[in-house]
Every structure is written in C-alpha cells, then in structure tokens.
Here is the input.
Amino acid sequence: MKEVKKYIFPVVFLILIGLSWLFDFASGEQIGLNFWMFFREMILFLPLMFILIGLFDVWVPRENIEKHIGKESGWKGTGLVILLATLQAGPLYGAFPFAYILWKKGCSIRNVFIYLGAFSTIKIPMLTFEIGFLGMKFSLLRTLITLPVFILIGYLMEWHLKDKDFEVKQP
Amino acid sequence: MLVLSIVTICLVIISLAVDRRKTWNGIKKGIKMFLSLLPTLLFMLALVSVVLFMIPEETLVRYMGEGSGITGWATAALFGSVALIPGFIAYPLCGILVKSGVAYSVIAVFITTLMMTGFLTLPVEARFFGWRVSIIRNLVSLAAALLIGLIMGFFL
Here is the structure.
C-alpha cells in the first residue's frame, strides 16, 4: 500500500494530461509534451546509469577508490574526479546516484562536491554543443572561470561538513 | 546516450562472463535504487514541465534583453536556478537570447545556474544528501554563478 501511495501524484498528473488531450485543452497538452520530453531523457539514461552503479558497487574495491580520490588523495584525486565527470553526460540529477556510490567507496567529501560541480558545468559532450551555439571564446572563458570556482565550492563544503557526520544516503 | 548504452551492455557482458552471481546482484541493486527513486523523479519532472510551460521564451527575452541591467541578472539567476533544462534545449535557447541582445554575462549566469542549481530537483537531491546540505549546495552554487557572470562581464 505504501508503494502504491508514492505514485498517487504522478498518476493524478498523468490523468490530468490525458483529460487535456481528450478535451483539447491546449495548456495541458503543452505541459504533457514537456513532460514527455523530460521523461524520455530520464528513462533513456537513468536505468543504465543505475545498472552501472550497481556493477561498480559489486566490483570496485573500496581501497582503490579511497586511495585515488579519498581524503589523502590531494590534487591528483581532484583531477581524477574532474576527468571522470567531464566524460559523462546527462542532467545533474543523474550525477547524484554516482556521487553516492563514490562516497560509499571512500571518496572524500570535497571530491564528491567537486565531482558534482564538474559534472554539471564542464561535461565534454555538452561543451561541443555550447561552442556551436555560443562560440569558442565564451565557452572556453566560462570553463576556465568555472573550474576554480567549483573546486572552491568543494573545499567550502568540506570545511562546513567535516565535523557534522555527513553522509550520502542510499535512495 | 548511444555511447552509454554500448558501454553498459559491454560491461554487463564482461561482468556476466566473469561472475554471474555477482553481476545479477549488482544489477538488482542498481534497479532497486532506481525504482525507489522513481516516484520522486516523476514528481520532479512533472513540476519542471509545468514551470517550463508557465515561462515562455518571449518572457525571458523581454526580462533579460538589452539594457535590462539588474533585472536581467535577477531573471537569469532566478529562472536558471529554478528550472532544469536539458542542454539540447538550453543552448539553442541561449543562442536565441544572444541574438536578441542579451549580454554575455547574463547568459553566463543563466547557463551556470541552469546546470549547477535546481530548486525543482531538490526533492531528488535531498534523497541523497538530505535537505539541509542540498539547500546549502544550491545556494552556494547560485552565489558562484553570479560571481562567474560578474567575471565573464569583465572579459566579454
């Protein structure tokens, strides 16, 4: 019953969208189209992402991650998480589950947030797109300015959370 | 997306070849997490589609356009942090905004907040980081975006 309850909102939403199509209610139809676009983007990539995370969980030993991007990893660790993040694609909410698994395997707080920052702003697949629409100069400059800013955010979050027994929870 | 599918399929096959039981365990774990997150995700996506509908392109151009000054910055930051728009829509939209005379610094704020902060995605983020930390991360990122816009303004 509890499982079913969680879906009440989405089901009501979909019924409203369905009624909009039935009665030619233009606003509802437009919202439905928006939803379909976002839903498609999510469903095409998130399940795969979670399968990869599951495999990562069973195969990658904690010591490995801890050594390379853990507390004592320094600049090399920061470089590694940034590299990892820039090679990925998809919206920010896809980065949260990956941040969870990294943290579970011993990634430091700072590197978790640097990972989120890099994932959201300098993914290479997205950069090619940005250059196309906004030009090389803009994209390059934005990337160069953004990079130190989110590294700083990583340090800030670490400083703020270090004695607060922070954890990334499993959803 | 295609790359991700190919990578996933290859890794699953390799993993199956090495250890079948371990592989199924991993896949089961992943799918379980996905299913437990799904209602929150659907809720968020529904919210985003309603908000996107309520704020059409013309409105954005009007408030962020030439000579909009501080209003332009505020609109960019506000809309950018609330919405979550995939890059394939966000960048073309920014292209249009630039052509309609929106300053590059405002575009930088808009793009950065669009990608780094999402107040509508907070329910999903909070499932992982808790509400307090998620809100802090979003506020800090918002401030960072404004800073990035300011620095961009000096250069462009």
User: Anything to note?
Assistant: The CA atoms of residues 39 and 71 of chain A lie 37 Å apart.
